Amino acid sequence: MKIHEIPLPDSNNNYIKLFELKNSLGTTVQITNAGACITSIKTEDKNANFSDIVLGFDHPEEYLNPDYLNNCVFLGATVGRFANRIAKGKFELEGKAFNLKTNNGENHLHGGPTGFHSRIWEPRINKTSSKDMLVMTLTSPDNDEGYPGTLKVEVTFFLTNENELIINYKAESDAPTPVNLTNHSYFNLSGKETDILDHEVMIFSDKYTPKKGDIPTGEIAPTQDTPFDFKDFHKVGERLNELLDDAYDHNMIINGEEGELRRAALVREPDSGRTLEVFTTMPGMQFYIGRFLDGTYRNGTRMFDKFAGMCFETQYFPDSPNWPAFPSCIFGPERPYRHTTVFKFGVNK
User: Fold this and answer.
1) What is the tens place of the pLDDT at every residue in 137-161?
2) Residues catalogued as catalytic
3) What three-state secondary structure class fits 326?
């Protein structure tokens, strides 16, 4: 596996970088330190043709465009401190009330308006005798977006010759604070300008967290006999008319134990033959099918319309700081944050 920096001679910001990871199978992953965003993943289809299977901008500077950040859909971003929503931007910790900045109506979403998706990360390439890794680091100061404690974050990207993109997250705080990091890539395995409604999805989940609006009710409910039951393959668009918002944007509780790397989802796209497996050590995964994409953004090959891509956001549950019964997302000096997600790419020929 090789990593190299792609020169950006036209960039107006010398701090913005773009890197390409490439393995022996020809798979390439491009990542920018602007938001630590995955900008492109190119894999082969059943006819050995390579196409991009994620939604991303052509130019890294676009991820920091103020108009985009003010209406952000988090294309491929590393999001934090807290992925997903915190109700009304409020929580209590050790008897103290905290008020976070809101950016999703009255709620705090994906770290707030200047969350990690909007930062320029510090990149480096770690070369060893066995592998090369792309490392992104960021320091979030005390009271950043309203969060307590100084948080030091490290995210490592590694593309194996087995077609696995391994993302390792580490974070350490000098005070107790919520931490919930994830990647927000929008996948479309067709590699074409089409929606994802005919993709077939399996999710290894027997339970999910119902919500009112976009905030959990606190209930943990079985998926059995509901449109959230993906124990067998279902097309993404097959049961949308059974959902309140006609779209999936829900937290699925992944079977197995937190901290254990296990399979969370399996996706296949019949026309191209491409497959995607998602593995995680996290207790939950937001299954989101791009209901808020509206064609505002595009790259040189496609427009990002509603249902143009879907996300598998491995995570702690939404609004976890306000639900003691949910798995704890509080980390500090005695409890560093660790999380691994693996996206494994394949093809049925």
Assistant:
1) 999 999 999 999 999 999 999 999 9
2) 184, 313
3) coil
Q: What's this model's pTM, rounded to 2 decimal places?
A: 0.97
Query: What are the angstrom distances between the C-alpha of 76 and each of 52, 144, 165, 185, 309?
Result: 13, 22, 13, 4, 11
- Judged on CB neighbours under 10 Å (0-12, 13-18, 19+), 36 is buried
For residue 294 the two structure tokens come to 């509206």
Extract the tokens encoding 2. 């090789």
Q: Which residues pair with 178 in a beta bridge?
A: 330
Q: How far apart are CA 245 and CA 14, in angstroms?
A: 43
When pLDDT is cut at 50, 70 and 90, the band that residue 172 belongs to is very high
13-17, 163-167, 231-235, 263-267 — which is least confidently predicted?
A: 13-17
Per residue in 276-312, pLDDT (tens digit) is: 999 999 999 999 999 999 999 999 999 999 999 999 9
210-232 burial, b at 16+ Cβ within 10 Å, e below that, comes to ebeebbbebeeeebeeeebbbee
What DSSP assignment string belongs to 121-172? -EEEEEE-SS-EEEEEEEEE-TTGGG--S-EEEEEEEEE-TTSEEEEEEEEE
> How far apart are alpha carbons 202 and 248 in whole angstroms?
14
Q: Which helix (H) or strand (E) holds 274?
A: strand 274-280
Cβ partners under 8 Å of residue 268, min gap 6: 189, 199, 200, 233, 274, 275, 276, 348
Note the pLDDT tens digit of each residue in 181-208: 999 999 999 999 999 999 999 999 999 9
Q: Among residues 247, 296, 249, 287, which one has the least CA distance to residue 71?
A: 296
Q: List domains and CATH numbers for the chain.
A: 2-347 (2.70.98.10)
Kind and range of the H or E element at 66? helix 66-70
* φ and ψ of 62, to 5 deg: -65, -25
